[in-house]
Design a protein that fits this description.
The complex is a heterodimer of chains A (about 290) and B (about 280). By secondary structure, chain A is an all-alpha fold. Chain A has helices spanning about 10-40, 55-65, 65-100, 105-110, 120-130, 135-140, 155-180, 185-195, 200-210, 210-225, 230-235, 250-260, 260-285; strands at about 40-45, 50. Chain A has one domain (about 60-285): MetI-like (MetI-like fold). Helices cover about 70% and strands about 0% of the residues of chain A. In chain A, a hairpin with a 6-residue loop joins strand 1 (about 40-45) and strand 2. The model of chain A is unreliable at about 290-293 (pLDDT under 50). The chains are: A mainly alpha (about 290), B mainly alpha (about 280). The interface between A and B is large, with 101 and 104 residues.
Chain lengths: ~290, ~280
């Protein structure tokens, strides 16, 4: 895609792109280059010099059981967040789509949690399940269930998953509802006349027609779970107990800033860089990026 | 055959079940926020002796007043101001530099044009989370820790906004630029008088999305604002929890959580159409 009509000049356009290029160079490419460079060294204990170790940091990283465990944790966490938030959102969108009147009202009521920051969502859920004052944990106690996400790894994972999925329902709902409303009603009515019940219609017509939206949301939600849930984890569990909720992004932070292990943190940044690149390529290459609205 | 009257849309019992399902969904979404609101209107003893009440108390002005004027580490009013500066700086900054670079890339032919375009594209692959330590070092070397520039600048470059404007400029009829050229108008005159007014809706839609993005930042302010006076509200909440075994001041913390949600929620609800448009556009 190129414009036929353009303006003359060389210095003016360069001046116009200069601010973006300058910021990109200083705050994006230079730090990314630094991360790659630093990942090839280990600093001596006093921080005076750097020793070249080649791929040593990576070998060390992948032989570290905690790092390998963090991969599994990230995978489990991302899949759960994606499935839970997309599942609830699809269910609500299917219901709202069945209404002739009022789906707009429900949309307004359901979309605004999009604006709640993941870190704030974390604090809200932490408050409900707090082991001392939490309302939900107190009622669970009355039912004879002793909730303690501070000690129990499964409960900790469950809590960060629900808190992360909760804030994401709005976004998925919006795209699912748009996708559903774009399906021609005549197709569905034709099937209904042929005697297909709701569930059959959904399985054989609606869901296949919705698949571009579903696939798009799958990728976007996985990216969200990977990179934007740091606030939820930091506020609720700080990666614990026993690193049970330490996803990769949390580990870069805790090793780099809390543990001050710069070589390892830089190597982890490089691994993440590769992961984002793959996800970005998938997003651009394989997604039919024309979600109908 | 009564349920065949409305073949697709439900009537009667089915209609009520549909509403019921949706209402349960809405309640599930609202419940955590309702509890936070209730907690922000009661006294500390009412919370620490569970179960806490489920209806608001009479401490609204007391708790919010205490949060806004003194807070725990810093007055929340100050943190709100910091968040506002950061969110506006990021949103307006991104829009400004993206408009300019998209204009240059679409309307001019100059050396390195393709290279610049790809450099901007590559920033998509470099979210702040993957370059935190080195970016922190850059900011520290510039002496920008605990400053608004430090909060804003590393988040201000955006490939998404540049692509959005590029895409929009491509749809602007060539005749407009042609006419401007024939009239002897300078490129910047064309940009300011024609292109900018035409982009109004796109700019507004993008602003809604970027404002929320900037307001909700957590990791970056956590790293570079060690001075409580520079904390943003979203990252400041976690700092209000005591480190040891002491009991948290829940009413003030929950009042702060509610205050942290109000501006972005107002933006979403008040500008719903622009918000939906911005969301769909920026994902294209």
């Amino acid at each position: 895609m190129e414009k036929r009509v353009t303006f003359k000049g060389i210095w003016l356009p360069i001046l116009l792109v200069a601010p973006q290029i300058a910021i990109t160079a200083v705050f994006f490419f230079y730090p990314a280059g630094q991360a790659i460079w630093q990942s090839l060294f280990i600093p001596d204990p006093f921080g005076f010099s750097m020793q070249w170790v080649g791929l040593g940091n990576f070998e060390f990283l992948f032989s570290d059981p905690f790092y390998r465990a963090s991969f599994v944790t990230t995978a489990v966490f991302s899949i759960l967040v994606t499935v839970v938030s997309m599942g609830i959102a699809l269910y609500l969108a299917v219901l709202a789509d069945r209404l002739i009147k009022g789906s707009g009202t429900y949309r307004t009521l359901l979309i605004w949690p999009y604006a709640v920051a993941p870190a704030v969502a974390g604090v809200l859920w932490l408050f409900m399940f707090n082991t001392r004052v939490g309302v939900v944990s107190w009622y669970l106690g009355q039912l004879g269930y002793d909730w303690n996400h501070v000690l129990n790894e499964g409960e900790a994972m469950g809590l960060v998953v629900v808190a992360s999925a909760w804030g994401r329902i709005s976004y998925n709902f919006l795209f699912f509802l748009a996708g559903l409303q774009a399906i021609p009603k005549s197709v569905i009515e034709a099937a209904a006349i042929d005697g297909a019940r709701f569930w059959t219609r959904f399985r054989t017509i609606v869901f296949p027609l919705l698949s571009p939206t579903t696939f798009f949301l799958l990728v976007v939600n996985i990216i969200y779970a990977f990179f934007e849930t740091f606030g939820v984890i930091h506020t609720i569990t700080s990666g614990g107990p026993q690193q049970a909720t330490t996803i990769l992004v949390y580990k870069v932070y805790s090793d780099g800033f809390v543990g001050q292990d710069l070589g390892s943190s830089a190597a982890q940044s490089v691994v993440l860089l590769v992961l984002v690149s793959i996800l970005t390529v998938v997003q651009f290459k394989y997604i039919e990026r024309r979600v109908h609205y | 055959m009564s349920d065949h009257t409305g073949m697709v849309e439900k009537r009667g019992v089915g209609l009520w079940l549909t509403h019921l399902g949706l209402i349960i969904g809405v309640l599930f979404i609202f419940f955590p926020i309702w509890l936070a609101f209730v907690a922000s209107t009661v006294t500390q003893p009412e919370i620490v002796r569970p179960p806490m009440p489920l209806l608001p108390g009479d401490q609204f002005f007391e708790n919010y007043g205490r949060a806004l004027t003194s807070g725990i580490n810093a007055p929340v009013a100050l943190m709100l101001f910091n968040s506002l500066v950061m969110a506006m700086g990021i949103a307006l900054g991104k829009i400004a530099i993206s408009l300019l670079s998209a204009f240059a890339i679409v309307y001019f032919r100059f050396p390195l044009r393709k290279t610049f375009f790809w450099l901007i594209f590559l920033t998509l692959m470099l979210p702040v989370e993957v370059r935190i330590v080195p970016t922190y070092e850059v900011i520290a070397n510039f002496g920008m820790l605990n400053s608004y520039q430090g909060l804003i600048l590393p988040l201000v470059a955006s490939a998404t906004a540049t692509f959005l404007f590029r895409q929009f400029f491509m749809t602007v009829p060539d005749e407009l630029a042609e006419a401007a050229r024939v009239d002897g108008a300078k490129p910047m005159r064309f940009f300011v008088d024609i292109l900018l007014p035409m982009s109004r809706t796109n700019i507004a839609a993008l602003f809604v999305i970027l404002f929320i993005y900037g307001w909700n930042q957590y990791l970056w302010p956590l790293l570079i604002t060690t001075d409580p006076e520079m904390n943003t509200i979203v990252m400041g909440i976690k700092q209000m929890f005591p480190s040891g075994d002491d009991t948290a001041d829940w009413p003030v913390i929950m009042a702060t959580s509610i205050l942290a949600m109000v501006p972005p929620v107002l933006v979403v609800v008040g500008m719903q159409r622009l918000f939906v448009r911005g969301l769909v556009e920026s994902e294209k």
